[in-house]
Amino acid sequence: MKPTDVKDKNSMNNPQRGLSRHMYMGEDWRKHLQSENDGTMRIKAHGDMKVDARIVTDEEHLAKYADDRGPEQLVNAASLPGIVGEAWAMADWHFGYGLPIGGVIATDTEAGELGGAISPGGVGFDINCGVRVLALDATIDEIPNIKKLGGRIAGRIPAGASGKGGLEITMNDLDEIISGGAEYAAEIGIGHSNDLENLESRGKLDTHDVKLSTRAKERGMRALGTLGSGNHFLEIQCVESVEDNETAKHWGLYEGQLLAMIHSGSRGLGHQVCSEHSRKLEQMYRRDGNRWYNENWDYHVADRQLACAPFHSKEGQQYLDDMNGAANFAFANRSALAHRLREVLKLEMGVDGEAKTLYDVAHNIAKVETHTIHGKNCQCAVHRKGATRAFGGDQLELNSHFKITGQPVLVPGDMGTGSWIMSGPVSGQNQAFGSSCHGAGRSLSRTKAKKTIDGKQLKKELENSGIRVHASTPNVLSEEAPDAYKDVDEVIELTSKAGLARPIARIIPKVVIKG
What we know:
The protein is an alpha+beta fold and 515 residues long. Helix content is 28%, strand content 26%.
């Protein structure tokens, strides 16, 4: 297959456009595919691949969700400079920008003179898109009026692409949030300080010299405390079943319990950061046969959407710093959303509406971590794009409360089926750099879903099944319909079989707020 080089001026603003146009599709990866009989399949290294690729799937799952582009992107990522271990695709994998959603790759930060690669395309546009779960000590039967509660939440939680309705903050507040994350948000009364120990990295990543553009900051000023659009949501949920009684009890979970799940990220601020760094790096690469080449660092990449810089280069460090700043904004944004939700719950339910944060996980992030590669410790830049940590209980960063259980892993499914809470191992790290799936994963593109699913009819069906839905447009419901996603139970089963995380509780939606 011949490489293509067709520019699409809209592809940077809309990651769903022009996705394959910078990508070289080499030898058919299926010729190198083999089952590991453990919930994963391996693509043996071939061509320019420096490591094998692993997909959390089996023959049936792979055939059901056949789309060669995602595995091709994973193969391309396996050729990145400094990559170590294996290039992973979680069970919720699907085609994305540069790296498939659900992709996990790690590069050696000390490889070569300036270290292995760090790539904005390997992290994603919505930096630190993530999930927070809050638990109430109440059941669905204790809500006096579920319809009224849904309406109150929808009126209090701004949703949609515009960013209207964000909390009023000063530019100084924004700068402090970019450097201080959820910790600073709690200091100014947005969120609880006792939430912090249950947030990944305590809701704050280290920054040194963040240099966000005026445009990025402008977009952030309007967006704090807003959900956004697309697959972002807030749901009031109910624990349908408990699969691991001991862990659930330790976390305070029980059947029938009310939970709130918040799925949102860094909004326009993070998107702007990724767009600017991706554009800058992509412009530094030139076509060289079937690949793209950067002569400054003698870097070749198979796909210009995976344009990258050495970890210790000026460009690499600036991206890391700016990405961490955007991630801090996302942690603070989920704190603000939780704060607004708590206000409604307290108003509607009194003392019974008090909600404690179970955990908050980040997706779309690159983190410096130490992992064992071929028997040796390696300091890695672990890129998780549409994937989440699933750390063992003995990892020092975790709250001691999770020492005997492992880290909670929060896995949203779809608004008509359900979601899951899983856990990392009690000790040690799993084989995928301590990573797990982050959701069900799309099975239909947004365009196809809009063409084939009637949003108004879907809303009626969901409400007839007891799920209150508040969405800004029927198109959003079409795009996010249950039929547009993989079977979340199947994704959980594969994830468990691969030993990446274990299921704790299945939860079902009762109120859904969508942008």
